[in-house]
Write a structure and sequence with these properties.
- The complex is a heterodimer.
- In chain A, a hairpin with a 3-residue loop joins strand 13 and strand 14.
- The N terminus of chain A is likely disordered.
- Chain A is 29% helix and 21% strand.
- By secondary structure, chain A is an alpha/beta fold.
- Chain A starts with a strand and ends with a strand.
- Chain B has a single domain, classed as Thiolase/Chalcone synthase (Peroxisomal Thiolase, Chain A, domain 1, 3-Layer(aba) Sandwich).
- Chain B has seven helices and ten strands.
- Classes of the chains: A alpha/beta, B alpha+beta.
- Chains A and B meet through strand 1, helix 3, helix 4, strand 4 and helix 5 of A and helix 3, helix 5, strand 5, helix 6 and strand 8 of B.
- Strand 1 of chain A pairs antiparallel with strand 8 of chain B, so a sheet runs across the interface.
């Protein structure tokens, strides 16, 4: 029986957390399709109703992907999972609600059972069984809409601690009557579609997505995308609304940059959370101005094109940011036409070049959660 | 292997309330028969008008965190985070929200709490905890994983102090919901620990060391995670050391808890 023990500061500084493989499913389709459509300035947002709610939404091209096992099968056919000793692999499931069919089928449709448990840990185990993998540790991380980013931070800590050599991250959240009615009751939805940082923004647009990434801890080589740093914080302000000052997001961003041993001046681009609610975008603009001042790097919000992919979103959006980094090109912020925040944030309705090889990826969630992840391309 | 320090602890479970400052208080009031009936005055001395509107998980999580934090006057909110492990998460709240939808009146207040991370909100707000947060929903042993993740966060200098919570809240009417294995999981308890990297000036502090086995220890029987946490709290209530090999849902390891002055080292 083996035993692993981690030590503080035993991290091998010659190694990095490398993004080995990744795939996503979004309202545009897979990763390649999503990147192509984003860079072309397309939008996946459609007019409602969505589950009886009068609001715009963005759904999978094929609604069969609302079944988590369909997503798993798709990823299994496209991602080479590491053929290493299972004892050296950790599996992290990132979701706000995950596969919610149990609640919907039993409570809304009167069924007596459902294809999958409502509990995230049982979903995580089912995912591993479907993928025919037996990792040493299976964890479900659920930090609201920042779940994916927190999953990346969690994986990075485990890998750096030397307890595992590989981490498999899986994120999933889908449209449902449960979430559609919920966000509508909060008054958070835009009737016409998200317009991040725009003067006429009126709320978020729900989307759905799945993402899978394989991280490894090894020496990095030219062209590798590395998870350079991550940091989190809490606003300690309100259950659902962000801090008006942006302090929490500033703190998380600075923590991530410190973790990456980087200064704000070396950031090439920012992938914003950018939900297009009046308060979030105002707060985020304040945070970005506090971090970068008048030297703000190019920024993008993907939610004007994709919708808000909930807990899986911050994992999917980080993967998209990595692809954009490889291309040195940020997609346009769809829905942005007239600058609608007080600070000179570098948002654009056109593509923007990424001049430096790094992206700061931001995410926030209910309960005051803020998370930032820094990705870099190894020169 | 570097140990960490538990500076304070508290528990709310089927037997009663535990904390070092208040001692063990069993449930003996006919109106307060268990954790879900807990009153604000039993756990928190300051006004908190929203306490009665919290769901069962949020209420007992807040109660345990409040009791533990009341014994740590020197924590700095800016560098204190929360690591929460929960088995059932927000399931009862999910079901109450779904019922409000079926009734034709979706409740925004209830919907806002339909996340496993919702107990973090009020704890962070009232105690001004602005450090990193992490919520482990389920898993084989969410409490041990929450302790482990808190250790990671402290080891990386992302926080000075972590409030570690193992919480389970499930209303009695929901125990028969399909696919949740409720018969094998006890419910309605909260355990809170204040975990730090460095020992503070306290009369009693505990060193904590935690290892996980790379392969499941087949010589052990599976036990509920709460049973280990209850033993740990009862040991600390009596200022005793606690050393266990644990196994929960086929995840095994060892935990060593020592009163300060007996720093425990183990070869890696």
């Amino acid at each position: 029986m083996g035993r692993y023990v981690y030590s503080i500061k035993r991290m091998d500084r010659l190694k990095s957390v490398v993004l080995e493989h990744a795939e996503i499913l979004t309202p545009f389709g897979n990763l390649a399709e999503t990147i192509a459509d984003l860079l072309a300035g397309e939008s996946a947002i459609r007019a409602g109703p969505c589950f009886g709610v009068e609001a715009a939404f963005a759904s999978f091209p094929d609604v069969k992907f609302r079944d988590i096992f369909c997503c798993i099968s798709y990823f299994a056919s496209r991602i080479p999972f590491p053929e290493t000793d299972p004892a050296s692999t950790i599996f992290i499931y990132c979701a706000a609600k995950g596969d919610i069919r149990a609640i919907e089928d039993i409570k809304f449709s009167g069924a007596s059972t459902a294809p999958v448990s409502p509990l995230l840990d049982m979903q995580a185990r089912s995912i591993c069984e479907s993928l025919a993998i037996a990792p040493a540790k299976i964890i479900a991380v659920s930090n609201a809409c920042a779940s994916g980013a927190v999953g990346i931070e969690t994986a990075t800590e485990y890998l750096r601690a030397g307890t595992f050599t590989h981490a498999i991250l899986f994120g999933f959240d889908c449209l449902s009557r449960f979430t559609a009615t919920g966000f509508f009751s909060l008054g958070a939805l835009s009737p016409t579609g998200a317009r991040p940082f725009d003067a006429r923004r009126s709320g978020l647009t729900m989307g759905e997505g799945a993402a899978c990434a394989v991280l490894s801890f090894r020496e990095s080589f030219s062209g590798d995308i590395v998870i350079a740093g991550a940091g989190s914080s809490n606003d300690a302000n309100h259950r659902t609304g962000p801090s008006r000052t942006g302090d929490g997001l500033i703190k998380a961003s600075r923590a991530a940059l410190f973790d990456a041993a980087m200064s704000p001046g070396s950031v090439g681009a920012v992938k914003c959370h950018g939900t297009a609610t009046p308060f979030n975008d105002a707060m985020e603009a304040k945070a970005l101005y506090s971090l970068f001042g008048h030297n703000c790097p190019p920024c993008v919000s993907l939610k004007g094109a994709l919708g808000h992919l909930s807990g899986a979103g911050s994992l999917a959006e980080t993967i998209i940011a990595a692809e954009c980094l490889k291309r040195r090109m940020l997609p346009p912020t769809k829905g942005y036409e007239q600058h609608g925040v007080d600070e000179p944030v570098k948002i654009s309705s056109d593509t923007q070049r990424i001049e430096k090889p790094s992206v700061l990826c931001l995410a926030a969630g209910f309960s005051g959660l803020n998370t930032a992840v820094v990705i870099k391309e190894h020169p | 292997m570097t140990p960490f320090f538990i500076q304070a602890f508290a528990a709310i479970n089927a037997k009663g309330i535990y904390s070092r400052s208040r001692g063990y208080i069993p449930w003996n009031d006919e109106h307060i028969s268990g954790p879900v009936d807990i009153q604000r005055s039993q756990v928190y001395d300051k006004p908190f008008t929203g306490f009665g509107k919290l769901n069962c998980t949020e209420k007992i999580a807040f109660g345990a965190a409040a009791l533990a934090l009341s014994e740590v006057p020197d924590y700095t909110g800016d560098s204190t985070g929360i690591c929460l492990g929960t088995v059932f998460g927000c399931l009862s709240t999910d079901l109450r929200y779904a019922e409000s939808v079926v009734a034709g009146f979706p409740s925004p207040a209830v919907f806002a709490a339909t996340l496993p991370s919702s107990p973090v909100a009020d704890i962070a707000i009232l105690f001004k905890l602005k450090g990193p947060d992490r919520v482990i929903a389920g898993s084989a042993c969410p409490g041990f994983f929450a302790l482990e993740n808190a250790m990671h966060i402290l080891a990386a200098d992302k926080a000075d102090c972590m409030v570690v919570l193992l919480v389970n809240g499930l209303e009695a009417q929901d125990r028969h919901f399909p696919l949740i294995d409720a018969e094998n999981r006890s419910s309605n308890y909260a355990y809170a620990f204040i975990l730090r990297r460095n020992m503070q000036n306290q009369s009693i502090t505990y060193t904590l060391s935690l290892d996980f086995d790379t392969k499941t220890n087949k010589s052990l029987q599976n036990r509920s995670e709460e049973s280990y946490f209850l033993e740990m709290v009862e040991a600390m209530m009596h200022n005793k050391n606690y050393d266990c090999s644990f196994k929960c849902n086929d995840t095994s390891g060892t935990l060593v808890l020592d009163t300060v002055g007996k720093l425990y080292t183990r070869l890696a």
